[in-house]
């Protein structure tokens, strides 16, 4: 329901931005002050601004719904940076008025220059963010764990968010990047879907790409908070009591992709490593389920063997370390995904992205493979992670 609560604010922001752009264009040239231009601009702006709602309401034809959803995902990012740029310009203009006391004509010229520079910067940042979201990187970490064991390579993926923003060719490139690592173990740490299985383009092609990933001991996954069926508006979801949230198509997709799902389950790999996949607390709450606590897992682990845990959200890190886990593999945060949210993630998570050591346990959080909401990345990277695990530390 947060989407409805934010609707008045969203409407106010868009009215403010549309008026600001019209004022700026009108100050640049008289052609932009004509009725014809204003009507055309408002028509295009309204179409883009309303796509979060129209993409939610329009169910068919599927091609139109997909178009509206894709435009909506791009628009959310463009609106964010347009708002930041406009606020910066207005703040600078206010300072100039106070300091230099320029006349109206001078201020109009200043507005033209600053507004033009701001809009050019918005275009540059957004186009970069759109391209950067499709630029796949491989991030490498090395950890040394206590005890005996065979050195191994772990490939970590998370937050694919398969849906309207997904390009099957991009998933195929990610699968090839994993194979290039020659991993011993493949881990998919949740948010494989983006709440709507029907939104996945060419699901058989994507499943085949994921099935093409090879490893010594197999591929394992846990669910994330978006891996269930819910109505979604502008990236926000809400509960509906009359709808089946646990979509069996999602589990079927994982089977076709050759990925073993662990829901509060433990497997022991042939090299002796204990691998645990935890349920997601947000998903459990919506399904009326519960997951085992770190203390309960402590009683189920064999202390003499290494223990890895797949946990979508990087929570309870200290408790998991005390339970006896050696390596925690997570996603969820996206590293903030877009500036400036990436600057505050460190205040929200003990490990917002990257690798940290918590007592004797290493926590590795990936910024993820896909995107949520705005279809862009600014200040963060789309990645698959290669972890070289050494024993005997």
TrEMBL record:
InterPro entries registered for this protein in UniProt: Calcineurin-like_PHP, Metallo-depent_PP-like, Metallophosphoesterase_sf
GO MF terms, alphabetically ordered: hydrolase activity
Origin superkingdom: Bacteria
Annotated Calcineurin-like phosphoesterase domain residues: 152-335
Gene3D superfamilies: 3.60.21.10
Keywords tagged on the record: Membrane, Transmembrane, Transmembrane helix
UniProt protein name: Metallophosphoesterase
């Amino acid at each position: 329901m947060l989407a409805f609560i934010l609707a008045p604010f969203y409407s106010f922001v868009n009215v403010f931005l549309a008026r600001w752009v019209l004022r700026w264009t009108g100050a640049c040239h008289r052609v932009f002050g004509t009725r014809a231009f204003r009507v055309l601009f408002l028509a295009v702006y309204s179409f883009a601004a309303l796509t979060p709602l129209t993409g939610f309401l329009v169910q068919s034809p599927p091609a139109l719904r997909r178009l509206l959803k894709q435009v909506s995902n791009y628009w959310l990012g463009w609106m964010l940076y347009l708002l930041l740029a406009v606020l910066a310009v207005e703040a600078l203009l206010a300072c100039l008025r106070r300091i230099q006391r320029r006349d109206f004509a001078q201020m109009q010229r200043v507005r033209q220059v600053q507004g033009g520079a701001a809009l050019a910067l918005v275009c540059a940042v957004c186009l970069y963010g759109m391209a950067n979201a499709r630029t796949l990187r491989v991030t490498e970490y090395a950890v040394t764990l206590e005890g005996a064991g065979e050195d191994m390579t772990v490939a970590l993926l998370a937050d694919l968010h398969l849906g309207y923003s997904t390009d099957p060719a991009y998933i195929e490139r990610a699968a090839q990047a994993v194979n290039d690592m020659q991993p011993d173990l493949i881990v998919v740490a949740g948010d494989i879907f983006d709440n709507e299985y029907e939104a996945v383009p060419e699901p058989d092609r994507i499943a085949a790409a994921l099935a093409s990933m090879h490893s010594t001991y197999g591929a394992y996954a846990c669910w994330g908070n978006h891996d269930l069926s819910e109505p979604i508006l502008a990236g926000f979801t809400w509960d509906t009591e009359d709808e089946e949230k646990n979509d069996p198509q999602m589990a079927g997709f994982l089977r076709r992709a050759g990925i073993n799902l662990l829901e509060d389950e433990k497997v022991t790999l042939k090299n002796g490593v204990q691998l645990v996949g935890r349920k997601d607390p947000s998903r459990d709450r919506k399904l009326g389920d519960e997951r085992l606590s770190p203390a309960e897992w402590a009683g189920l682990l064999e202390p003499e063997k290494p223990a890895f845990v797949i946990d979508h959200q990087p929570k309870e890190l200290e408790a998991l370390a005390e339970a006896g886990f050696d390596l925690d593999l997570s996603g969820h945060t996206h590293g903030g995904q877009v500036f400036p949210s990436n600057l505050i993630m460190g205040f929200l998570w003990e490990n917002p992205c990257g690798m940290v050591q918590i007592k004797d346990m290493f926590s590795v959080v990936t910024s993820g493979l896909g995107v949520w909401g705005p279809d862009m990345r600014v200040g963060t990277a789309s990645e698959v992670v290669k972890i070289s695990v050494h024993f005997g530390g």
